[in-house]
């Protein structure tokens, strides 16, 4: 009964509004969604080619261990196949971690402004979330290390962080790990790591070989464009994989998602193109913000957290009526910021044009 009382104050996760919902609500024929950090270019064409082969197997249960995907991903990452665990999106692995490692009264440390499911899953399991404020939008690793107690079981580090897009470096992460006692599991969530271009970003898979307390989360939802399929993975020690498998549902990743992920891995040229267009889009938006005198956190993801200098909720609703879906930072602890996904060049242009109208700023077409 006590866990139910703890859940009363938990907010329900609110995804970005759908295209169909906004079209119907405001009578619009064209809507641009830049709210959920999705890939504006979809997924590799190789995915759809591969899925034709799955039509004959839709009546069969999927392989719970994802053997083919496990083998091919392990080869690509140069890790042991036994070090991989798969989830219905990497957020299901967040749930598995909380279920496997947190008992009532255990503590889990996380940033105050970060991916909200860390806190939610901690509370669901009867754990105590310990939130450490960010410093200039970046994880305060010193503060997080200082918050560790005998009851700490898990530390969550979202890198790059959602919603700020900021990152901790390899040196910072290594120094942080050295400060922690052995009873603490460190989860580094790298959902956006394919978008990172900073040379100082951690080589977390190499760190895994030296530190068995580390678990790295990644996903096919972002740059691979498979968010609708729900497939993510974790890389860690075989011992931790064994613990997670105890709480993993037997058929948690469906066969079609597994096949889609396998096909997506074969098209790294698609990934490179998406990386390049994301860099160009980031520059496109930043250049306009500079002209307006507006700031944004230095992002290593495919999104920007922009300080509009006005109520984020007001800007959000104004853009929504103009057919642009973004996220208000109000619920994220940033009442004047909006989070916007970096889209295609045309989507970015439309966003900037409508933002200019909302903020009464000049907008000049690029040409």
TrEMBL record:
It comes from Kroppenstedtia guangzhouensis. InterPro entries: Aminotransferase_I/II_large, HisP_aminotrans, HistidinolP_aminotransfase, PyrdxlP-dep_Trfase, PyrdxlP-dep_Trfase_major, PyrdxlP-dep_Trfase_small. Keywords: Amino-acid biosynthesis, Aminotransferase, Histidine biosynthesis, Pyridoxal phosphate, Transferase. Residues 30-353 form the Aminotransferase class I/classII large domain. Homodimer. It holds the Pfam family Aminotran_1_2. This is Histidinol-phosphate aminotransferase. Transmembrane segments: none annotated. The modification N6-(pyridoxal phosphate)lysine is found at residue 222. It catalyses: L-histidinol phosphate + 2-oxoglutarate = 3-(imidazol-4-yl)-2-oxopropyl phosphate + L-glutamate. Belongs to the class-II pyridoxal-phosphate-dependent aminotransferase family. Histidinol-phosphate aminotransferase subfamily. Its cofactor is pyridoxal 5'-phosphate. Its EC number is 2.6.1.9. One of its GO terms (molecular function) is transaminase activity. Pathway: Amino-acid biosynthesis; L-histidine biosynthesis; L-histidine from 5-phospho-alpha-D-ribose 1-diphosphate: step 7/9. The lineage of its organism: Bacteria, Bacillati, Bacillota, Bacilli, Bacillales. It comes from the Bacteria.
């Amino acid at each position: 009964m006590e866990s139910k009382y703890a859940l009363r104050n938990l907010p329900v996760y609110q995804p970005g509004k759908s295209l169909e919902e906004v079209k119907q609500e405001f009578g619009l024929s064209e809507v641009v969604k830049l709210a959920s950090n999705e890939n504006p270019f979809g997924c590799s064409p190789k995915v759809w080619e591969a899925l034709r082969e799955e039509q004959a197997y839709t009546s069969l249960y999927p392989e719970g261990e994802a053997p083919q995907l496990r083998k091919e991903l392990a080869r690509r990452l140069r890790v042991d196949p036994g070090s991989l665990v798969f989830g219905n999106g990497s957020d299901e692995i967040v749930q598995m971690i909380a279920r496997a490692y947190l008992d009532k009264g255990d503590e889990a440390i996380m940033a105050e402004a970060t991916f909200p499911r860390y806190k939610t899953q901690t509370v669901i399991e009867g754990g105590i979330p310990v939130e450490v404020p960010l410093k200039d939008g970046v994880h305060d690793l010193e503060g997080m290390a200082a918050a560790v107690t005998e009851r700490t079981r898990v530390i969550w580090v979202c890198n790059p962080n959602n919603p700020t897009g900021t990152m901790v470096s390899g040196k910072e992460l290594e120094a942080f790990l050295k400060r922690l006692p052995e009873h603490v599991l460190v989860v580094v969530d790298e959902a956006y790591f394919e978008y990172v271009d900073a040379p100082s970003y951690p080589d977390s898979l190499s760190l895994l070989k030296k530190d068995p307390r580390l678990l790295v989360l990644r996903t096919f939802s972002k740059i691979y464009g498979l968010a609708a399929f729900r497939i993510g993975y974790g890389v860690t020690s075989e011992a931790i994989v064994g613990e997670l498998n105890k709480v993993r549902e037997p058929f948690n990743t469906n066969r079609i998602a597994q096949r889609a992920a396998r096909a997506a891995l074969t098209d790294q040229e698609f990934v490179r193109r998406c990386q390049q267009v994301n860099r160009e889009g980031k520059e496109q938006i930043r250049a306009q913000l500079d002209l307006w005198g507006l700031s944004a956190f230095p992002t290593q993801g495919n999104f920007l957290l922009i300080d509009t200098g006005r109520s984020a909720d007001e800007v959000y609703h104004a853009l929504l009526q103009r057919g642009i879906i973004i996220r208000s930072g109000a619920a994220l602890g940033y009442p004047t910021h909006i989070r916007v996904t970096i889209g295609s060049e045309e989507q970015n242009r439309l966003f900037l044009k409508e933002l200019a109208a909302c903020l009464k700023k000049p907008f000049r077409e690029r040409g």
